[in-house]
Amino acid sequence: MPRPAPLSNASTGSYPRFDTQLTPRTPHSRAGRAEEAYTAAELEQVDFDDDDNYSSVVQQQQAPLLSSSASDSFPATTGYRSRGDDFDAHAPKRTGLTTDKILSRLPLALYSSVAAVLLVLVFFSLREPEALKKYVGVTTNVSESEAAGDLEVMPTSTMPTSTPIQQQQPPPNIILISYENYTSFPLDPLEYRAECLKMDSGIRAQTPYWGTDKSGMYYDVLHVDEQVGYEASPDESSICSRTMTYQLDGWAGLLTDLALMAQVAALARERNATFFVDDRFWNRGKWSDYFEDVQAGQPGPEPGCRPPPPEEFVACPRTARHWLMNSRTARHHLDHDFMEHYADPYGHNLNRMKPFYEFGFKSFSETIRPNAQTAQLIQSARQELSEKVTAHYRNPRSDDGTPMGYLAVHIRRGDRKPTWRLPYGQNYIALSEYVDAVVQSWTRLGLEMSPSNDERLVQPFVYIASDSPEAANEFASSFSPDRVFSLSASESEELRGLASPGEYFQDAWKDLDEQVRVKATRGMVVDFAVLSGTWASDDDITPDGTVCTVSSVVCRAAAFGLGWNRSFGELDQMGMIDQEHMRWVDVDTKARVLPAWEAYRGDTYFLRPRPWLTCRQHPDSRVYTPVQSQSSLSETAPVR
């Protein structure tokens, strides 16, 4: 069989026709020209009779697929259509900046330089404001020591002209706290909170509640009476050696402030410090509008000493010589460490809380006391209540003439939601819960029997205090009018004017008229006294029990007036409330949360949750349900 002839690209024979043509594979061959294809105008100029006709299918396949760069079919130029027809890949590259480039980038460089200079000036003004003023030629009426950051503001009365104060280095164990960025003192509550956040930022080693870290260093500011050359004016008393101050700021409800203040006053007694109250930022008026000077009941270890200059107040740490606390910084101090340090280490549940109860009980008895005007209003309310109770029962309870008592009810509305979960669509605890608690407590405590022992049942008499007039009226409708009393129902026009004007919302409180705020605050003090029996003498009528919701600080603080044993009964070794004899009745959690009582709110912004906060099964519940906190550590509505 003859051997077939080899294929030849030079064959001039006809090429079979195909429906499709083959695509060249090399971009630089003349047959390919992948990125330099002919345009329509170029194809019109091509000689189709030439054997190199590119448009011929036969020619495309007769030309070699891989041509040498030296062949005629290799393109003469190496340009790329994507870079322009005149691009030469072998041409030398131009480097360096041209005049056009420099001029085009000059504005950007100028703006960047100006921004950098401004940034440096801003940073310098924050760190060294006085030095910056000196450089720019601004003069101030402060001394050189003040400009250097030694003292922000110093009263002129403490600076004798004969003996100038010299700059003094702090003690070796003191790390100075800089307040050089502030111009007015005392700082407002949010500024003190910012300082505490800076102090507590990052990971800090565990230290004792009143101790320092392992280095033994303390944080504090310089004190004017420790400066070389300081001499007090002859008509001034000396500055207290150590102070603790509670700052009233208006960010919290009245009883929230009082409950926190009671704990700080107790710490001042324990740490041998003088206790003060600062009301410069209070939106309820002045402390003296309602209460006595705290120095009257708690003079401290140095009676008559004066508070420090306001620039020496330190919110954090608490170990500073002149410590100040408010409702915004309380979370940094009355926290888990505070509870662990002062709670009864051998007690369980409510027994662990007794030291804090004793703190608050003594503070409300000795330190936080109403002034003469407020005390007179409280006495007037108690006297009118006693007359109504006596007229209702007609018979004395005992031979000494003491009349039958009453049950007090506090109904909180406004921005205070219950702690325990409620049925869907219900925002507040139903008023029927309060009514049932009053009736059951009256029977449980044996108050329903007539004092004359004639087996006649005696109906309960109720004192109502509420921030909601509508809720108070609705609750009173469940009883006959002669068995209910409140400030709004008083015969005294002055007492009626102290009744709550409406539901209490902390966010809207600051927008009320000042006189309205003062009257509402004084009315709350009177309500609290009658609700709890606080500040009562031996001859005053006091409640036989108080029905309230533990979500309100008014309810928690009411236990101070009732007394420990009267409030919770005889506690067993496990610290459980005596359900048969307790007179502090919570219709919110109903003792399903342990501990059932705390001296102050444990689930609002100023305190962290308790590690021992547990739940137990209530007789009315078949499941263990944790408390649903209504707030977090962020900003929440404080309670009244």
UniProtKB/TrEMBL annotation:
<feature type="compositionally biased region" description="Polar residues">
    <location>
        <begin position="8"/>
        <end position="26"/>
    </location>
</feature>
<keyword id="KW-0472">Membrane</keyword>
<feature type="region of interest" description="Disordered">
    <location>
        <begin position="1"/>
        <end position="36"/>
    </location>
</feature>
<keyword id="KW-1133">Transmembrane helix</keyword>
<dbReference type="GO" id="GO:0006487">
    <property type="term" value="P:protein N-linked glycosylation"/>
</dbReference>
<feature type="transmembrane region" description="Helical">
    <location>
        <begin position="108"/>
        <end position="126"/>
    </location>
</feature>
<feature type="compositionally biased region" description="Low complexity">
    <location>
        <begin position="57"/>
        <end position="73"/>
    </location>
</feature>
<feature type="region of interest" description="Disordered">
    <location>
        <begin position="57"/>
        <end position="93"/>
    </location>
</feature>
<protein>
    <submittedName>
        <fullName>Uncharacterized protein</fullName>
    </submittedName>
</protein>
<keyword id="KW-0812">Transmembrane</keyword>
<feature type="compositionally biased region" description="Basic and acidic residues">
    <location>
        <begin position="82"/>
        <end position="91"/>
    </location>
</feature>
<dbReference type="GO" id="GO:0046921">
    <property type="term" value="F:alpha-(1-&gt;6)-fucosyltransferase activity"/>
</dbReference>
